[in-house]
């Protein structure tokens, strides 16, 4: 067959574009390994549920609407704004929206 010969593996590895891609992959991997967890709050699901409840009812709950053992007990929703924003971000873009919202608020 006449034409261009296939590149050897050594020529492929020496390619500057491949070297850049390899370095970029290693740096990205290292960032994700050593980055603190974005959703490191153990109550993410309950915050989402509270925000969704507030959106559905148009009010901030004053009694516990979720637990079985403390149903109706007095509850102060001191994180109501963050819960509403979380529920809205989740409603708009799912988990990606929630991660973007938390990332925007990160230090």
Sheet with most strands = none
Let me know the average pLDDT.
Answer: 80
Provide the succession of SSEs: HHHH
Structural class designation: mainly alpha
Number of helices: 4
Strand residue content: under 5%
Whole-number radius of gyration? 24 Å
Please provide the count of β strands. Answer: 0
Please give the share of residues in helix. 55-70%
End-to-end C-alpha gap: 61 Å
Q: Identify low-pLDDT runs.
A: none
* Overall morphology: elongated
Describe the structure concisely for a colleague.
With 107 residues, the protein is an all-alpha fold.
List strands and helices in order, with pairings.
Blueprint: H1 9-14, H2 16-34, H3 44-57, H4 80-104
Helix pairs in contact: 3-4
What would your notes on this structure say?
- The chain is an all-alpha fold.
- It is about 60% helix and about 0% strand.
- The chain is built from four helices and no strands.
- It starts with 8 loop residues before the first helix and ends with a helix.
Task: Kindly list the characteristics that best describe this protein.
mainly alpha
């Amino acid at each position: 067959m006449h034409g261009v010969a296939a590149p050897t593996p050594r020529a492929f590895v020496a390619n500057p574009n491949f070297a850049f891609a390899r370095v970029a992959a290693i740096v990205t991997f290292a960032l994700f390994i050593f980055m603190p967890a974005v959703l490191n709050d153990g109550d993410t699901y309950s915050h989402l549920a509270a925000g969704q409840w507030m959106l559905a009812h148009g009010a901030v709950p004053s009694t516990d609407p979720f637990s079985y053992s403390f149903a109706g007990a007095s509850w102060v929703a001191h994180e109501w704004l963050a819960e509403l924003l979380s529920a809205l971000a989740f409603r708009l873009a799912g988990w990606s929206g929630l991660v973007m919202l938390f990332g925007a608020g990160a230090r």
